[in-house]
Design a protein that fits this description.
Elements: H1 3-7, H2 12-29, H3 31-36, H4 44-52, H5 58-68, H6 73-76, H7 90-99, H8 103-115, H9 122-132, H10 144-155, H11 162-171, H12 185-193, H13 195-205, H14 220-234, H15 250-267, H16 270-280, H17 295-302, H18 307-319, H19 331-349, H20 353-380
């Protein structure tokens, strides 16, 4: 008579008291106490709230199904869904949580399963991730790490539907960066293998040289798409020609470049496209003969019409240094200058003198930086 009313009390403290009482009784008397309670006059909401205070385990779920019959939303919508209370049956819980609009709770369960190396249905994980994007449940219910780990598990499973993975990487692109230990692997491979896709992404981010400035400001949706497209290009580390097994195919690079040049010339995006390609090419492997850069890439960068690509290559090499502490002696800058001069000599010896010139320019910029550091320290003294 008293318990069901307290469970739904408008005073939060009374409802918490009732929940604590129910859990305490369960711990001392077990399921016999639960099953002896006459709930025939209880409302479905009261039954669901009562069960939600009990441990998140299959025995509770079975009683939810038996007592609430067709509509279990009063339980699955209220349970804390703490995945580490259940030793088995989390797959069933995931399905129920998705069914009753709790995708973030479902993702917590999937994270537990992934952590314990328990199998789960890829399609179910995809559904939970996609529904979480439009859920009112609240993103604070799960952290970014858990989402990234589930996506990485899907990426590592060859049975994952590529179309599903494509949608997920597009949707969660802001999380798939090096800070979270992840990358949009399928999207990067598409950039590297499909010239048309690369050109489409370029057009999403950059305005054509053949077009006048648009008279209307972009919508929020268009801005969001452009921002994600730029993130993809900025973090691209799988350049054209790179095989998934670590090998490099120079012929594939040449064909990819020809197709991109043709399409981007027509659209008015050639210069910026080549600059972005140059950014990605710093990630190519060494050549099999020991040269620090694959010879096919060195030849492409050496080409007479590859000035924009060389500029992008040099800029990205400089940016790849990342954040650093300033050494007042300027030694790190001098070491970098020496490193790039040595690389320049190696590629010049191989016949790629235009690329060598670009690397010497980069070395010179580090030498000037070292001089500025020393001058600044002398001035401060």
């Amino acid at each position: 008579m008293i318990l069901p009313k307290l469970l739904e009390s408008e005073q939060k403290s009374l409802a918490q008291f009732a929940g604590g009482f129910a859990l305490g009784r369960f711990r001392t008397r077990g399921w016999q106490w639960v099953d002896d309670i006459d709930t025939l006059r209880w409302t479905p909401s009261q039954v669901g709230q009562f069960l939600a205070y009990l441990p998140f385990i299959p025995d509770t779920w079975e009683r939810s199904k038996r007592l609430l019959t067709e509509d279990e939303s009063h339980y699955w919508g209220e349970t804390s869904a703490h995945p580490y209370e259940a030793e088995t049956g989390l797959g069933t819980a995931v399905d129920k949580l998705i069914q009753y609009g709790r995708p973030y709770a479902a993702l917590r369960c999937l994270q537990r399963m992934q952590h314990d190396k328990l199998p789960f249905e890829n399609s179910t994980a995809v559904q939970a991730l996609m529904e979480a994007l439009r859920s009112s449940e609240g993103a604070q219910s799960i952290d970014a790490y858990a989402i990234v780990e589930i996506i990485k598990a899907l990426q590592n499973d060859p049975s994952t539907n590529p179309d599903d993975l494509f949608r997920l990487e597009c949707a969660y692109l802001p999380l798939l960066d090096r800070h979270h230990g992840a990358s949009p692997r399928l999207l990067e491979r598409r950039l590297a293998k499909e010239p048309g896709f690369f050109c489409e992404v370029i057009r999403l981010v950059f305005r054509s040289k053949k077009e006048e400035r648009p008279s209307e400001e972009a919508t929020e949706a268009e801005k969001s798409i452009a921002t994600n497209a730029y993130r993809l290009l900025h973090g691209w580390r799988t350049p054209p020609g790179c095989g998934e097994d670590g090998t490099y195919d120079g012929d594939a690079l040449a064909m990819w470049l020809d197709a991109v040049k043709l399409e981007c010339s027509d659209s008015g995006h050639l210069e910026i496209a080549m600059t972005m390609v140059g950014h990605a090419l710093i990630h190519v492997p060494p050549d099999a003969d020991g040269l620090w850069i694959n010879r096919s890439v060195a030849a492409a960068l050496h080409a007479k019409d590859a000035g924009d690509m060389r500029d992008g290559f040099r800029t990205e090499l400089h940016n790849s240094r990342g954040a650093y502490w300033v050494d007042p002696t300027g030694k790190p800058e001098r070491d970098l200058a020496n490193n790039y001069r040595a690389r320049a000599e190696a590629v010049e010896g191989a016949g790629y003198y235009r690329l060598a010139t670009t690397l010497r320019e980069l070395a010179g910029s580090y030498e000037h930086e070292a001089e500025r550091v020393l001058s600044r320290e002398s001035f401060d003294d």
